[in-house]
Amino acid sequence: MFSKSIPLCFLLFCLLHHAASGASPLYHICFSEANYPGRSPYHANLDTMLNHLSTKVPPTGFGVASTGQGPNKVNGLALCRGDISSPKCKTCIIEASKELRARCPHKKGAIIWYDHCMLKYSNGNFFGQIDTTNKFHLWNTQSVSNPRPFNKNVNKFLSGLSDKASSNRKLYSTGELQLDKSKKLYGLVQCTRDLSRLECKKCLDVAMSELPKDSDAKRGGRVASGSCNFRYELSHFV
Fold this sequence. Notes:
Elements: H1 8-21, E1 27-29, H2 41-56, E2 62-67, E3 74-80, H3 86-103, E4 110-113, E5 117-122, E6 135-139, H4 147-166, E7 172-178, E8 184-191, H5 197-209, E9 220-225, E10 228-233
Antiparallel strand pairs: 1-4, 2-3, 3-5, 4-5, 6-9, 7-8, 8-10, 9-10
Helix pairs in contact: 2-3, 4-5
InterPro entries: CRR_secretory_protein, GNK2, GNK2_sf
Protein name: Putative Gnk2-like domain-containing protein
GO cellular component, one term: extracellular region
């Protein structure tokens, strides 16, 4: 089950603040218990690696980078949402780098999520591995009036998007589903491209199965991990 949950009042604040600023983090985790001293080789390698990601990621929306050797080696990964332009992707990665270092000072491993991007770094080699530890979920505060058919539609819709994403080169898919004459369901699923297509599908399936009961019949929700994410809404967001 998910270990990270966000109170509704905090969620409402985040959504309103994000809508106003366009650059508010959704969530972050300082997952490493190990620290590095300031002005150390690890600190210098972290700065170099993050700067490299801000240049490498925007053209394609995804990238990994490593800097240093031995105990001072830093591995990093960044992913931008599939519909985001290169300039917006670069802006998000740069902001994420600054914010993550401010929120997790001297930590050797941390991750941060924005609406437009995700950034992760660690002294361990995590490339190509499904991250099932670092994750969180958000959900809309409003519920639908017809929960049973809505939940069924959401599950079927997201499952279909998961199949499309795992067979897509970018491991990304969006779509919409007409629920009735006046209502549409919108969705997005995405994986980090260090995963295989099979691993992407597995990551998304696990994430979708772990959507918490608190989000049951909610008008929107999302689950994000260090390897994949999905989102659905009754309003257009992509």
